[in-house]
Amino acid sequence: MSSIILDQNSTEFTETSNKIEVQKKNGKSFVFQIKNSYKKLTNVDQLNHIINYLVLTSGYLMNNQSNNLIKFDHPLNSNENICYYEYYPREMIMNKFEKKLLSEVSL
C-alpha cells in the first residue's frame, strides 16, 4: 500500500490529515483519498451541538455504543465512500474518518 500525505495539521485541541492511498482489492488497484481528523472537546455544549448536527441535519445514525466509544455511521456509506464519526467519552474526543474512491488504476 502506497500513500502520499497531502496535508497534516495539529493544534492543542485538533489534528487533521489528508492523504492519497493506493489499495489493492481482488487483483485491482484503487486510489482513495483518506481524511482523518479529531477534536478534543472542552465542554458538553460542543458535544450537544455536534450530535445535533450529525443526527438531525446530516442523517447519521448511532451504530455502536460502549463505555469507551459511540460511533455514528451514514446510511449511504459503501465500499467506495465511507464517512463515520467516533466519540470517545472518557477523553471527550470526536474523530471523523472519510475514505473516498477517486479512481481505479492500472499498475
> How big is the Rg?
16 Å
Strand order of the largest sheet: 1-2-3-7-6-5-4
- Tell me about the biggest sheet? 7 strands, antiparallel
Q: Got a strand count?
A: 7
> What share of residues is helical?
10-25%
> Termini, distance in Å?
12 Å
Description:
With 107 residues, the protein is mainly β. Helices cover 13% and strands 60% of the residues. It has a seven-stranded antiparallel beta sheet, covered by helices on one side. A hairpin with a 4-residue loop joins strand 4 (61-65) and strand 5.
Task: Supply the key terms.
107 residues; mainly beta
SSE layout and pairing:
Elements: E1 2-10, E2 14-25, E3 28-40, H1 44-57, E4 61-65, E5 70-73, E6 81-88, E7 93-105
Antiparallel strand pairs: 1-2, 2-3, 3-7, 4-5, 5-6, 6-7
Q: What's this model, at a glance?
A:
The protein is 13% helix and 60% strand.
